[in-house]
Amino acid sequence: MRTMGLDVGTKTVGIALSDELGWTAQGLETLKINEEENEFGFDQLGKIIKEHQVSKVVVGLPKNMNGTIGPRGEACQRFAKEIENLFGLPVILWDERLTTMAAERVLLEADVSRKKRKKVIDKMAAVMILQGYLNSQI
């Protein structure tokens, strides 16, 4: 069984999956959503969960630097709760402070163009969220 990692934004959700042993995270895709119109891509997530036999989901929780939860964090908590309700899977909220910045730095160091970075940054952040969680389980 695999673990899925999600980096939830207002317009996209970065998706990563673990290997079957739960050691490594790989980026899968970036799902377009529209938070303003309540389009969250749950149908597509359900297909991925079924296809890859996902047994657990890790959702990045963007906390403020002082550890408090702001509006973005609250939106991620609602998203996580909806996944639990729809798919009956355990959902772990994982502190994702600075993961998008770290992903950006990795892509810059790899000399990825701005246009390409924009396409993969959320997927890369999902990988970092999931890998952080997997590392904590060892």
Automatic annotation (TrEMBL):
Q: Which UniProt keywords apply?
A: Cytoplasm, Hydrolase, Nuclease, Ribosome biogenesis
Family annotation (Pfam families): RuvX
Q: What class of enzyme is it?
A: hydrolase
Q: Where is the YqgF/RNase H-like domain?
A: 1-103
Q: Where in the cell is the protein located? A: Cytoplasm
Q: Which domain of life is it from?
A: Bacteria
What Enzyme Commission number(s) apply to this enzyme? Answer: 3.1.-.-
Family matches, as CDD domains: YqgF
An example GO CC term for this entry is: cytosol
The UniProt entry, under InterPro entries, shows:
RNaseH-like_sf, YqgF, YqgF/RNaseH-like_dom, YqgF/RNaseH-like_dom_sf
Quick check: keyword Cytoplasm in the entry? yes
What processes in GO biological process is this protein linked to?
rRNA 5'-end processing
Q: Does the keyword Cytoplasm apply?
A: yes
User: Chief location of this protein?
Assistant: cytoplasm
Extract one GO molecular function annotation from the record. nuclease activity
Question: Which family is this sequence assigned to?
Answer: Belongs to the YqgF HJR family.
User: What is the role of this chain?
Assistant: Could be a nuclease involved in processing of the 5'-end of pre-16S rRNA.
Q: What is this protein called?
A: Putative pre-16S rRNA nuclease
